[in-house]
């Protein structure tokens, strides 16, 4: 066997390992952190963001409805907390493919033992992590660097009439942003604060 054949075999083995996603559970049920392998050689690198078979093994069995990319120019910018109400609730898979973000998921499921609890995960191009956010969660993040790019995989299509949000500055949510806040959109600042009438989302 010559050196070229050896290189092809080694490449094949490494490429197959890209589908072996590792799952880390969080303290919130069904909220999952995904760790991936990255194939690197002298030409560059290959990172597999999603693979149906690999994600099925992690418990993600939904179809992929849409894939979107968001670019955030300024460090300290906050986006969120966004969610879609039933019957258009969606699962999100969030990945930072450039820069780094502090990603936050808040449990809004009315029947959950962790109702209104949140999880924070640093996602970056370096740590190769994603967060699988189930239906019934609000989501937001803060950019920790300039020029961040975030990739979203959605299990449901965007429905404007079902879209809603929580205010990222609401002290009742007890979310501590890691760096000084730079920008928040007028729309996100306009989301209401939680009151005693907020009962969460009923997810079937």
Could you walk me through the main structural features you see in this protein, from its secondary elements to its overall organization?
The chain has three helices and 13 strands. It has 204 residues and is mainly β. It has a six-stranded antiparallel sheet, with no helix packed on it. A five-stranded antiparallel sheet has the order 9-8-11-6-13, with no helix packed on it. The longest helix is centred in the first third of the chain and has 15 residues, at 3-17. The chain is globular.
Number of domains: 1
Give the neighbour order of strands across the main sheet: 1-2-10-7-12-5
Which range does the strand content fall in?
35-45%
Query: What gyration radius follows from the Cα positions, in whole Å?
Result: 19 Å
Biggest beta-sheet profile:
6 strands, antiparallel
CATH fold-level assignment: Jelly Rolls
Overall geometry comes to globular
**End-to-end gap:** 57 Å
**What is the element string, with H for helices and E for strands?**
HEEEEHEEEEEEEEEH
What CATH architecture would you give?
Sandwich
In CATH terms, the superfamily is Jelly Rolls
Total helical elements: 3
Query: Percent of residues in helical segments?
Result: 10-25%
Give the rounded overall mean pLDDT.
90
Write down the CATH class: Mainly Beta
């Amino acid at each position: 066997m010559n050196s070229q054949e050896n290189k092809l075999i080694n490449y094949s083995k490494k490429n197959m390992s890209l589908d072996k996603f590792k799952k880390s559970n969080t303290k919130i049920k069904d909220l999952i952190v995904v760790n991936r392998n990255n194939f690197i050689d002298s030409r560059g690198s290959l990172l597999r963001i999603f693979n149906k078979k690999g994600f099925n093994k992690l418990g993600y069995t939904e179809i992929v409805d849409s894939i979107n990319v968001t670019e955030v120019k300024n460090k300290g910018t906050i986006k969120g907390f966004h969610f879609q109400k039933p019957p258009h609730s969606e699962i999100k898979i969030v990945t930072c493919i450039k820069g780094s973000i502090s990603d936050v998921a808040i449990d809004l499921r009315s029947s959950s033992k962790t109702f209104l609890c949140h999880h924070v995960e640093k996602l970056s191009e370096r740590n190769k992590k994603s967060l699988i956010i189930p239906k019934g969660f609000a989501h937001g993040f803060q950019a920790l660097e300039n020029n961040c790019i975030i990739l979203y995989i959605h299990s449901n299509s965007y429905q404007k009439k079902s879209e809603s949000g929580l205010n990222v500055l609401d002290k009742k949510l007890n979310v501590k942003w890691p760096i000084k806040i730079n920008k928040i959109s007028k729309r996100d600042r306009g989301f209401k604060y939680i009151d005693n009438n907020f009962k969460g989302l009923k997810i079937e």
